[in-house]
Amino acid sequence: LRYSTAGESHGKTLLALVDGFPAGVEIETDAIDADLKLRQGGYGRGGRQRIETDKVEILTGIWKGISLGSPIALQVINKDYKLERLEDLPRPRPGHGDLTGAIKFLGPVRGILERASARETTVRVAAGGLAKLLLKQFGITAFGYVSELGGVKINSQEGNLEQLHKLRGDSIIYSLNPDQDAEIKQLIDATGKSGDTLGGIVEVRVDGVPFGLGTHAQWDRKLDGRLAQAVMAVQAIKGVEIGLGFEAARRPGSQVHDPIHFDPEHRDQPHLGYTRPTNNAGGLEAGMTNGQPIIIRAAKKPISTLAKPLDSINLDTKEKQGASYERSDVCAVSAAAIIVENVVAFEIATALVEKFGGDSLQEMKARYDLFQQMARER
Ligand code: EPS
Prior knowledge:
Helix content: 25-40%
Order of helices and strands: EEHHEEEEHHHEEHHEEHEEEEEEEEHH
Largest sheet: 5 strands, antiparallel
Strand content: 15-25%
Shape: globular
CATH class: Alpha Beta
Number of domains: 1
Distance between the termini: 29 Å
Low-confidence stretches: none
Bound molecules: ligand EPS
Mean pLDDT: 97
Oligomer: single chain
CATH architecture: 4-Layer Sandwich
CATH topology: Chorismate synthase, AroC fold
Structural class: alpha+beta
Strand order of the largest sheet: 8-7-9-16-11
Radius of gyration: 22 Å
């Protein structure tokens, strides 16, 4: 299972081509559209989101609402299509790819900024949304939320998945503590007024994951490495952690590694009864899933388009000038929670297809059940 995308921020359309998606999966777009809507939201988003109403259209690969096993092309049309009329922006924004892109491709800044823009994450979310339809068939769920914003740590509340969805739905920034919204809203408002932007940290948990996705055997097939790449490759992400992450380096081994217990009452769970009192490994040991929830965190830098611009150089005249500004978001950390959730879901679905065969859902389910049975007897 793999995908690639095409499209410019202000071009006609955005496309994702998903290849290797199994046959026999019921495809309904409501859940994908719900994620697209969430991606557009969160307090602090800019004017563009008032123009767009992102909706996915599935152009190929399904028949009567069921996947065929052939490539699936997903489209989200840009309402704000105006690329042909747009001029160049010759004053590169520090933090964006503007300067490097213009030099690398020996061309206009417009040629790089249109594709480097986080607008492209629209169709990454659509591809991840499609992957989630497959994961759902195996009881696997991915869920992302904001755990820190502009340096303010959120005291995430706990609960079952339904309760967590409710908390995130109630929070204007998609955190798990709506009680802290007022404080964060104030911070975003004040930052916006001063012409600045804010970053933050998002966390994704994946529940219902069986043992053995990924492999220890080869570096480029280790699932922790693949997840890290998928998440790091999201626009503006500068750090990725799994489980305890960097904190693991600060503790002795006895306070890092998760003891192994056995509870015969729960052999029907994805963990097959092998319970762990802690999950510091974040569901991954030696590049393989260990039956525990996957926990992955990402650090998003503040958006680099600043209303009060930093120093830059006009590439045409080489004069010192402020960086270009048309419009921007003050904060898109909430959107990142949804984007990271979806790119993680896609990688998990890819690993699932690799382990259980990818021609049809029917075959995958039979092999999944057989593996669970054999693993219980191990
Ligand atoms: C985005 C659309 C963009 C920006 C944002 C992400 O729209 P526009 O450039 O037309 O205002 O709002 O992109 C950035 C801030 C960036 O630096 O790339 C979207 O749909 O997510």
